[in-house]
Amino acid sequence: MTRSAGRAPRVGIVGLGYMGLGTGLAFAARGLPVIGYDAKPEIRSAVARGVTPYHEKGLAALLRTQVRSGRFRVVDRLDDLVAGAEGIFLCVPTPPRPSGRIDLRPLRRATAEVARAIGAVTRYRLVVVKSTVVPGTTEAVVLPDVLRHSGRTPRTVSVASNPEFLAEGTMVHDALYPDRVVIGTLDHRAQEWLERAYRPFRAPVVSLTPSGAELVKYSANAFLALKVSFANEVARLADRLGVHVDRVMDAVGRDPRIGPRFLRAGPGFGGSCFEKDVSAFVARARELGVPLRTGAAALRANEEQMAYTLDFVRTVVGTLAGKRVALLGLAFKAGTDDVRESRAIPIAERLVAEGAEVRAHDPVAVEPFRRIWMAPGPRARGRLKLCSSLEETLTGADVAILQADWPDYLRWTRARSRRMRRPLLLDLRRALDPQAAERVGLTVIGLGAGGPVSPARIARARRAR
Ligand code: UDX
Predict the structure, then answer these.
(1) What CATH superfamily classification does 304-462 receive?
(2) Is there a shared CATH topology between the 11-208 domain and the 218-302 domain?
């Protein structure tokens, strides 16, 4: 038994972004004392007051409860975190670089700061890499950095990899009830500490080396991305063959060897992980002399899905010049205010470039979208209006495009149809029931729902008012 075996493991979380906050709060909810720190003072002060800086289902309530209980507290100095927590989770971003590789600078900065603080305490400390890093990074980069900046030896400090599998929108649930906990360690002490920290979750633990754990994370994301890209390619075929893609994928997914999830075709995957992680995985595999053809194909098919989506819009709408288009859903998927790599961005860019007048709406992501849209760059900024009300977005529209399937959009009303000049909606996720929509005066045409789109349906939509 180690000296601290009787006490609950004390957790430190460095980086209170979506993932760090979700992870830290889950530990607190499972009864572990957690100390959080973020380099940004505004994030620290919001979280310390129990205010979540992100839109994430259940996060605000969990934060309030855990701050109030005293199990989750925020400190203004990293030294205080390192003094109070023996397992320190690095949850800082690893943003993509233009080459496809990840930028390790924020992680290395955080590692150096944490390691220096470790140098100032006497007890054992464990640095856990939760940030997504390519296989080999924890051992080849983080471990030497920790030893160098802390002045310790591997007898009194360890490093480990412990990737996360949290998806935005379901993060709180995913963090509280993990399917599996993946731990990559180099020594017993780190292994034992992590197993104790995760015991209250009662999830299966998979133990590997750090490189093994890192490989699990990338393989999982690459495989999920591949599933989505596959479904998207089948959707294009379904449109050619006059078949509904969801009926096909439903039957395909009933095979337990395949499974039903991540087979929903749409405008292509977005978000901060898939594109970035699969690109980095492909680049890392290439460095190791292994061409990762399936990963590269998932990315390629995703680009092509965007082109297909735009062709689909043009097929139905005809020329876009002078048309008023209502773009519904700006987040990369419903349930989040995250717009990183959202398909709404290239769709809006293309619509504007082709001369459409775009009105765009999202229940929570208008401001994050505005920040991206207005950022300096080659983006055509004119002719796009961000609206705070759905009514304003729809008024006088020649067509609506549903990019993210927020529940409110699915409760369509006749009043909404009447606001449009032509009550026609292109459903990139096939979320609306076309027959129910028809009853409230809206013609819905779904991507992958069995086109080619009949000219008669389009004509009917144009006549209907
Ligand atoms: C993903 C992984 O799911 C998560 O395990 C990992 O930790 C981070 O990356 P996230 O990016 O939050 O999570 O979203 P996810 O739900 O996986 O969706 C990613 C993209 O794929 C979204 O644009 C979504 O709309 C799209 N998608 C997903 C589909 O188009 N069809 C599907 O069937 C599933």
Answers:
(1) NAD(P)-binding Rossmann-like Domain (3.40.50.720)
(2) no
Q: What is the Å distance from ligand 1's center to 194 Cα?
A: 27
Q: What's the pLDDT tens digit per position in 88-101?
A: 999 999 999 988 88
- Residue 427 half-sphere exposure, CB side, CA atoms within 13 Å? 23
Domain boundaries, the chain: 11-208, 218-302, 304-462
402-430 per-position pLDDT tens digit:
999 999 999 999 999 999 999 999 999 99
Smallest CA separation from ligand 1 atom 34, residue:
262
Q: How far is CA 157 from CA 61, 119, 153, 183, in A?
A: 35, 10, 6, 17
Q: What's 75's DSSP letter?
A: -
Name beta bridge partners: 208. 184
Which residue out of 332, 402, 405, 447 has the highest number of ligand 1 atoms within 8 Å of its CB and is therefore the one to mutate?
332
| Distance from the alpha carbon of residue 271 to the mean position of ligand 1, in angstroms | 7
Query: Given the structure tokens 């028809």, which residue do they identify?
Result: 438
Strand pairing category for 72-74 and 87-90: unpaired
Share of the chain above pLDDT 70, in %: 95
Fold of 218-302: N-(1-d-carboxylethyl)-l-norvaline Dehydrogenase; domain 2 (1.10.1040)
Please report the pLDDT score of residue 54 as a whole number. Answer: 86
Residues annotated as catalytic are 273
- What does the pLDDT read at residue 164? 97
- CATH dotted code for 11-208: 3.40.50.720
